[in-house]
Amino acid sequence: MDRPKPVSNLSSALAAININQPQAQQQQQQQPEQNSTYLGGGPSAHEQYDNGTIDRIAAYRQNPPTEGISLFSHRSAPNGFKVAVVLSELGLKFKTFYLDFKKSEQRSPYYVSINPNARIPAILDHDNNDHAVWESGAILIYLCQKAGPDCSLWSEDYTEQSIITSWLFFQASGHAPMIGQALHFRYFHPEMIPSAIERYAGEVRRIYSVVEMTLAEKREQLIMEMDDESFALGTSALSESKYFEEPVWLVGSRMTIADLSFVTWNHVVDRIGISLKDEFPEVYKWTRFMMERPAVIRALSGLESN
User: Fold this and answer.
1) Where residue 220 falls among pLDDT bands split at 50, 70, 90?
2) Which of 119, 230, 250, 289 is deepest in the core (most CB within 10 A)?
3) Residue 24: its pLDDT value, please?
4) What is the homologous superfamily of the domain 56-147 according to CATH?
């Protein structure tokens, strides 16, 4: 299988995987680099595991930053980069602490005190008494609420809020887990099980068909409202409309966290053999609009706030 050139920190770990390599070798390739950004604490703050290695999270918790947000993530985790994308879009000050799964840093008691599920992502808001939030969807909502009533990625209307949260739940409970399972059985499972690969890839396609239909209906509505009557009469094809390449969004007429919650997973779905461009053209255009945004580019490159 040809391996595409990595285009961001997010895709680099997945792009390094060869499906024909032994499991142990693949896992070794997947390990993140040692984190070069140390978030606080000197030698006196270091605590050690039983094997003598330093607990970096213990050191951090003893001397945390005084402002901004700390994002706990992993270098190949779409859910972590999902939060980074929204932080970047909102212009919130943040630093990323990349956990080293090889050292089981996610199981550090100091990290479990932040996220009892011992998974990523999680955040600490140093502007709010080091308040901890975990689960990516909950984090996105919290960040929008933190940004205030004029947050462009959220809504003050409770009806729109319910639609946004419906898509967030759909993405977190269906879209992400199914892609994750498809990746697992394709690249990490100790034995090749074609039926499992097909089952999860098929479910991912079903989920994308839901999004595709929603976006297609939004585009048709846009063209009917904004273009000339030939489209409403059916005498002109929708593809001929000047609005055929205009962005459309899941909720209302603007991008929200409902849209952004999908973008990092869309960015890696080609690794399970799904071509958004060929199979789901509206999803492809939607993803492209988001991927071209400077804040998204910055977040996927691993860059943080200034």
Assistant:
1) confident
2) 250
3) 42
4) Glutaredoxin (3.40.30.10)
Tell which CATH classification among 1.20.1050.10, 3.40.50.150, 3.30.2130.10, 3.40.1160.10 matches the domain 155-301. Answer: 1.20.1050.10
Tell me what the pLDDT averaged over the chain comes to: 84
pTM above 0.85, yes or no: no
